[in-house]
Amino acid sequence: MPAGRLGRADRAPKVVRTGHAEPAMSRRPRIGPQDGRLAEAVRVGLGYALRTAPTRTLALQTAAAALEQNLIGEATTSAKMTAAKLLACVEQLSDADRRLILREAAIGDETVRLRGLDAGARSRLASALRSAI
């Protein structure tokens, strides 16, 4: 075999293309400053993580991310949390802000548990939380 040429066994394997491209944005959760708060929410509870967030913005981002990533429930000790309780945990919100968020999310009954909301309602609530930032 001439010098510099590799034998068949030494060649790199062929890459087989299946025709299925990776999606531009895979279904991974967003990574942002709220990730530390979400990790804390798993450790100590969502309510506490929101109440102790250093800024209103971080508290709202964390609440929205928890809804989007379906971290409402046993993992964050928030199985019984309602929309009203979630908003009350963001202590930097005024009552007017809370009412506006509920109205934007079109949640008529704020005493319904977050786990009881359908996916559309949870998505609207997350969007309303982000718009209040």
Can you tell me the number of structural domains? 1
Largest sheet: none
Return residue spans where pLDDT drops below 50 for at least 5 consecutive residues: 19-28
Give the helix/strand class: mainly alpha
Instruction: Please count the beta strands (DSSP E, at least 2 residues each).
Output: 0
Strand content: under 5%
Shape, per Cα inertia axes: globular
Element-by-element helix/strand order: HHHHHH
Q: Name the average pLDDT.
A: 84
Measure the end-to-end span. Answer: 68 Å
Question: How many separate helices?
Answer: 6
User: Helix share of residues?
Assistant: 40-55%
Structure, described:
By secondary structure, the protein is mainly α. The chain has one domain. The protein is 45% helix and 0% strand. The longest helix has 13 residues, at 56-68. It starts with 33 loop residues before the first helix and ends with a helix.
Topology, pairings included?
Blueprint: H1 34-44, H2 46-51, H3 56-68, H4 83-89, H5 95-104, H6 119-131
Task: Write a compact overview of the structure shown.
The chain is an all-alpha fold and 133 residues long. It has helices at residues 34-44, 46-51, 56-68, 83-89, 95-104, 119-131. The chain has six helices and no strands.
